[in-house]
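Appendix B. Chain record.
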Amino acid sequence: MSFDLMKKLLMMTILLLTTQLASSQSVEAFVSNQLLTYPESRLLDIYKSCFQDYMGAEHLVTNRERVKAYLETELNNRQELDSMMTWYAEPCGINGRYVRVSLRCITEQYISQEQLLDAFIRSANTSPRPSVESWRETWQSIMEVIDRMHLNLPHMEEDRLFIDNILSAGRYAISHSPEYRAAYHPHYRIVEHSIFEKELKPLLPPFVSE
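Structure tokens predicted for this chain:
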């Protein structure tokens, strides 16, 4: 083997290890922040944020009126909305390709119902959705890092099996855990990062949108 080829292979190996290390650190940072911000999280909730980041909205939107009616139903549930977390927007998962935009933005009149609805629908429909198989491989890589963190989350093995089963069935979307819903009352819509940055973020108070 020539010296140049050995040098090239060594550089490629170093680059691969550096990339893997950065990816591992990103997963650890996200999971640690998730558990610090939402201590009632289960593996299901970590998984949900990660697949939202990777896959975007759970369904293509073909019926705007149905989506609008569902949004209005949530907005009419005052008891739930009054118990929401105080944030207006937060990035999904590890890379923040999508943003969770809280319905608090509507109830506090920073953005309109139609603005959020339009941003959500375009986010759901305009970007090609990755395959479930590619997401399954990505999640397996994430789980390898989570396992090394030795988190001992409640219902860990039960949640792991549930996630494995839905991915084996060719599905990926799940709901938040009952514990997460009871503690944090999540009511939000997923918006693609660039749409959020250009259209919604400028409408929010600077101290909550930076």
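Further analysis of this model is presented in Appendix C.
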